[in-house]
Specification:
The protein is built from 2 helices and 16 strands. The chain is mainly beta and 265 residues long. Strands 1, 2, 5, 6, 11, 12, 13, 15 and 16 form a 9-stranded mixed β-sheet that branches. The protein has a 4-stranded antiparallel β-sheet with strand order 4-3-7-8, with no helix packed on it. A 3-stranded antiparallel β-sheet has the order 9-10-14, with no helix packed on it.
Length: 265
């Protein structure tokens, strides 16, 4: 190839590369703010709280504005009693009389901005957390320590669980969910895996085990997919599956909870 041909070849290559480049402008601030409702009732004595905020634009700070002045009610459908919550701080609404009882169904009703949002949740029966042990695994020349809850799954009942951990009083802010679809009626010991830097020998570990309903399980399961905190390669939805009506984000959950504090060995 002579010098003239080389020059034309390089010119055509540059033009081809330029033609394949397309600038796409994505406006991340067009999404309208959405209501986010997070409410829980447990088998521990109340009061309980419902927090209501709004989403913010992508470029905004990670501060979600509270929704004030809402009318928030929780009804115990078994006792047919309704608790009208008080706004104890901006966007935080607190119960007065309702108490969490396994087997009871609870209805949440929120009215704000001319819109009504509802959700319901049935509190499952508790499953006893027998003990917490530890699993040691060598990964990449490091010792990986995982807490292992040990418990008997009831036979013939669909059970859903969530687990949270605190290490030296610090919340690891990771919720792990598990269902008994393949483990019905079995004695279960499941490693709650985290990065190896989270738990070291001698650390104080507080492990919480919650018995949740299916809607709460679905929310946290899809939340891990959305956040990329999972090993699944399938497509995930744009938002976690919520049990709250009217396209609200968040969840309302009535669940039983128990915990054990142990020293990592």
């Amino acid at each position: 190839m002579n010098r003239f041909s080389v020059k034309w070849y390089l010119l055509l290559l540059v033009l081809a590369l330029y033609a394949c480049t397309k600038v796409i402008n994505v406006n991340l601030n067009d999404a309208s703010p959405q209501i986010v409702i997070e409410g829980i009732i447990t088998n521990n004595p109340g009061p309980y709280q419902v927090q209501i905020t709004k989403t913010v634009n992508f470029s905004a700070s990670n501060t979600y504005p509270p929704v004030t002045g809402a009318v928030v009610k929780i009804t115990d459908n078994v006792f047919a009693t309704t608790d009208v919550l008080s706004e104890t701080s901006p966007g935080v609404y607190t119960t007065h009389i309702v108490q969490g009882i396994p087997g009871h169904s609870y209805q949440l009703n929120v009215v704000t901005g001319g819109q009504t949002y509802t959700a319901s949740s049935v509190m499952p029966q508790p499953v006893t957390l027998d003990s917490v042990s530890f699993q040691h695994t060598n990964r990449f020349s490091k010792l990986d320590i995982s807490a292992v809850p040990n418990f008997q799954d009831p036979i013939g009942i669909k059970n859903y669980y969530s687990f949270a951990q605190y290490v030296n009083s610090k919340n690891l802010k990771t919720t792990v969910v598990f269902d008994d679809r393949l483990s019905d009626g079995k004695y279960i010991s499941i490693a709650i895996r985290n990065d190896s830097s989270y738990i070291s020998i001698g650390d104080t570990v507080l492990l919480k085990m919650n018995c949740i309903d299916k809607s709460t399980y679905d929310y946290f399961y899809t939340f891990t997919q959305v956040s990329g905190n999972n090993n699944f390669q399938s497509a995930s939805p744009s938002n976690p599956v919520s049990n709250i009506s009217n396209n609200a984000l968040g969840y309302f959950s009535a669940y039983t909870t128990q915990s054990k504090k142990v020293i990592a060995k």
